[in-house]
Amino acid sequence: MTIKNLYDRIFSLSVLDFEGWNETDVREDFIKPLLNLLGYRKNTDYDINREGKHQLHKPFLMVGRKRIDIDYELLVRKKQFWIIEAKPAFPREIQEQDIFQAHLYALHPEVNARYFAVINGWNIVVYDSRNIDETYQSILKIRVDDLPQKFSELNNILGSKNIIPMLKQRVFDDIKDILSVEVMEERLQEFSLGVDSILESVRPVVRENQKNTYLRKKIESEQKFKKIYLSSSFEELIKLGFSFPNTLEQFNLIYEAFNSKFEILNNVEKSKIVTTILQVLRGRPSSCHRRNLIALLVRLSPNNEMLSDSLSFSSIADEIKRAIKDCLTHFENQSWLRELWQLEGNLYRVYYKLTFFSNDFFETFFHNIVKVKKEILEDEELVFQAPDAPRERVSFIEQIVKMIYYQCIGRNEQLLLQLNCELNEFESRLNLGFQEEINKVHPEDRILLNYHKYNKPFDFLNSGLFQFLYEDYKIVYSLLDDESLELILKLIQKKLEQYTSNWVDVFLVKYLFNRNRYEILTNISRNQEIVDLPNLLKQLSDYGQIFTYVELSPDDNISLIRVSIRERYNPSGEWTLEGQLDIKDKLIKITALNKKNKYISNPIKPIAFPTSDKDQNERND
């Protein structure tokens, strides 16, 4: 909710004419929207219990009633802290009898509310049930026409975000009053130890609350976005939705919504959707958008291999191969797209560095954003995704770069070339003092991504692409031909550190090995427990259990890579395979195969392995 929207809703309540309103009218048309503005909603952490019923026992029976009905009980995570007694709009002033009645309800043992409010539309009056005398002096009184000016006062006391801090302050005040009458100083230390004991006992509960809140908010967030995605058209999802996900988890969320709608279409309708994807992919999407669309096509390709003859594309498989080759070669045969790719990386690096040259301004700017968000967001939102300065810096850079990038996609190649030259020159000047400037900034306040290395040498496009395709390596493996594999080898031979080990590992160990691209020469210095090394590797690969560590040989003239392959999620231990990979001669030379205990003591059993009897037997074998 924007500040303007909040003010408009508060103002609309302040101009209501309550003449002739009964108690039900006041409850439904004034108190209910007021509580929503204060952050309370049914079936949330800040819940509303309407017309709570409680039995009266001695001494409460003296009032001549056997039961009380409370109009509103306001709860924070199922614990009750204040109540509202609603009254009709006539008479306009709150009556003493109404205050006495609400006070009685607040004192009920089952209610035990620290605050109570009496509201008749014309007036909102708040009382502290534990600090009230015969004059019924209120702690806050607001006339309805003053609501826009005094809403913040009401929110500071009873707002869902402020009620707990307010109550804690009241506890501090009570403690101060009690301890101020002590005459023995050691009693203060006794009290301090008692407070420490309470804090330690409640700490695990708070941690569990935090964990449960995070998981619940995560599910709620996913459901919210799924609802948005399901209500979006295919064109909106393809051209906009898939341009944002930066992680595999985010991608899977939108893909599930997309596929649930896609799989019920007939073949002609599917072909039209796929054609739209291919058209966008052949256009000028950003690197993030491009990799997501390729990953989307990979997911769709098994059931939609060939497109309709009436379409301008021959097959999804061919288009995926073309798109992957474009990424691997950085569009070497499409100079215009190559300039756009370079522009994106140049923009990220330049804006990243610029924020540190003006860091006094940006540091204040980002920390003020964090401060405002922490004041506005509810605790549950802060638990789920707490704002911090590095994330705000990332968000700022991404928004600026995307805005400029999409403004430049219509420019011709010559203009893009000129712009890239100017950015490179500007960055060269920035580099003269960049290290000095960034060293002034605390490491925690710098950045979360390697923006300063984009395209030099960090390859965001290829690294991000194969991070997404990692989970679908069998599909990708079926799409890659010998030409693609030779291209990968050629790129690796050029300079390994230009690419992240993530996708290099996947291709070398999973794709290339499974395609029998390499001859394995074993030379294992251990006993003969395992003699069939290729079958061992194949079994690990099928389970998706291979983890590799790749490093460049110290001698750059020799195309050798050291590879370790580990069997993960095995509670009894792990195998470590070490050797050399000769790219030129296409040989994997195994020099050692060792088994070591994975856990020394108190093993925690992993949950990622299959648990069926068949899988259990295979694992034991």
Roughly what is the average pLDDT, rounded to an integer?
78
Q: Total helix count?
A: 22
Question: What percent of residues adopt helix (DSSP H or I)?
Answer: 40-55%
Q: Strand order within the widest sheet? A: 1-2-3-4-5-6
Shape: elongated
Mind explaining what this structure looks like?
With 621 residues, the protein is an alpha+beta fold. The protein is built from 22 helices and 11 strands. The strands form 2 sheets. A 6-stranded mixed sheet has the order 1-2-3-4-5-6, sandwiched between helices. Strands 7-11-10-9-8 form a 5-stranded mixed sheet. A hairpin with a 4-residue loop joins strand 10 (574-582) and strand 11 (587-596). Helix 6 (185-231) runs parallel beside helix 8, helix 10 runs parallel beside helix 17 (460-469) and helix 13 packs across helix 15 (389-408). The radius of gyration is 33 Å and the shape is elongated.
